[in-house]
Structures are given as C-alpha cells and as structure tokens.
Write a structure and sequence with these properties.
Length: 254
C-alpha cells in the first residue's frame, strides 16, 4: 500500500509483519528476512540489530520468538522513528536507539549497550563495493548500501564488544567478499557456520550468511547452498515458506 507522503506499507512474513518504509532510499527486502531466518535466538535473549533501518530483520525475528529483549540500532533519525512506529504497529516491544555503530564504547554504554551485555547481534552492514557500484544521488541509499573501507571491521568490532562470551553474531554480506568477512571475524570469533545464497542456481552465489560465536572454537561448517530460485524465474518453494515465516534456515538451529 502506498500513501501520498512518500511512504509505503508493505507486508512481510506472509502478512504477519507490516512495515512502513520510505518509497525511495534503502528498502527492506529478502536480505532482511533471510537474516532473521538465519539468526538463532532463545526466549529471554538480549538481541541487538545493527543498522536496523525501519526494523525489518529484528522485528521479523521477534515475530518468531516473541520473548526476546530487542534493541534496534540505527544512525538515521528518520528511519529510527519509522522503526518505533513499526514496532508499535506490530505490538512488538523494542528499544530503538539512534547511534552510529562505529561509535566508541562509551556511547554504546550510554545508550544501554554495555560491553558483554548482548546474547545475539544480527546485522546487514552496507556492503556494496564503491569501486564497482556507481554513486547514487540518493544519500540515504548510499549510506545504507555502500561500504567504506572500515565498515565491516568496525561493525564486527562493535558486535564483539557488546556480545557476551559465547554470544552469537549473524550477518549477511556479498558472497565475493567472504574473505573480508572471515578476516574481520578472525579476532575474537570462531565456530563459523556459512550458508551461500544464490539468486540463480546457474551462477555463483551473490550473498553469504555467516553465524559466528564470540570465543568459539568449533570447526567451520559450510552448508549446502540456498537457491532462491529453482530456475531463473521459478521461486524455490522452500525459500518462499521461509520468507512467509513458516520455517528457519539451518544457521538458526541450536
């Protein structure tokens, strides 16, 4: 549904979740729902979403496990306000925090995110390579999509700082940047679980979902690839069930 004020109201999880979001700029889609479906949580967990935007991934996760304690961290004041609106409209309790993920530890602590206080962090950082993606005239879209040289390392560092030992980080990134992700996670994280995501089974993966454990020491596991489409234009029925909120991805299993 579209209104005249520059926003749309969109249904996710088969209509279980409705989100108000801007018509232009970054808009929530499959990546956010896949991230939520790949995140392992238990009732009572303190869960923090970095770069939450309008709250899509975190709120989708709360729809699956309602007893989590959710914080949505977003730098853009306008998007943070939409996240508040969306949480209330979907009857989900969430702390919405306006904060730059690259801020110092003191700013996180002032916002209620002290070191070693979170059980789960999930994030979909800006990951487009500026050398290969022409700059958009939409500044909000650039901020949400284009990675700076330090984006990944700073976001991983912030997640490591607020997670408890044994806490879980789940993130989505470009598949061709997997080496960057693993290098960033090498300090302080282990027990990696990796799920390649293909838009088309005939071409290489374009996304990768990764679950990592703070201080984890288990061997790395690579799961069979997730095919969003069985053929170029034929959606994978199992993925459609996941996107409708009727299942989880393997990374979300204990």
């Amino acid at each position: 549904m579209t209104d005249s004020a520059g926003f749309t109201e969109d249904a996710f999880l088969g209509g279980q979740l409705r989100l108000r979001q801007p018509k232009s700029g970054h808009r929530a889609g499959h990546d956010a729902m896949l991230l939520a479906a790949a995140t392992a949580v238990r009732p009572g967990d303190r869960v923090v979403e970095f770069g939450a935007g309008v709250g899509a991934a975190g709120l989708a996760l709360a729809k699956r496990v309602s007893e989590i304690r959710l914080a949505l961290v977003e730098i853009d004041v306008g998007l943070a306000e939409l996240a508040r609106v969306n949480a209330a409209a979907n009857a989900i309790a969430a702390d919405v925090i306006v904060l730059d993920v690259t801020s110092e530890a003191s700013a996180f602590a002032d916002a209620g995110l002290a070191p070693d206080s979170a059980d789960v962090v999930l994030m979909n950082p800006p990951f487009n390579d500026p050398a290969r993606h022409p700059a958009s005239p939409d500044k909000a879209r650039v901020s949400a999509h284009v990675a700076r040289p330090t984006t990944l390392t700073s976001w991983v560092h912030a997640s490591r700082r607020i997670l408890k030992s044994g806490g879980v980080l789940t993130l989505i990134w470009r598949a061709d940047g997997i080496a960057e992700v693993l290098a960033s996670l090498d300090r302080g994280f282990g027990s990696f679980k990796i799920l390649p995501v293909h838009g088309d089974p005939a071409i290489p993966a374009n996304r990768v979902l990764i679950r990592a454990i703070k201080s984890g020491r288990a061997p790395t596991e690579i799961y069979p690839a997730l095919m969003l489409n069985e053929r170029a234009t034929v959606p994978n029925k199992w993925v459609q069930e996941i996107l409708a909120g009727k299942g989880i991805l393997p990374l979300a299993k204990p």
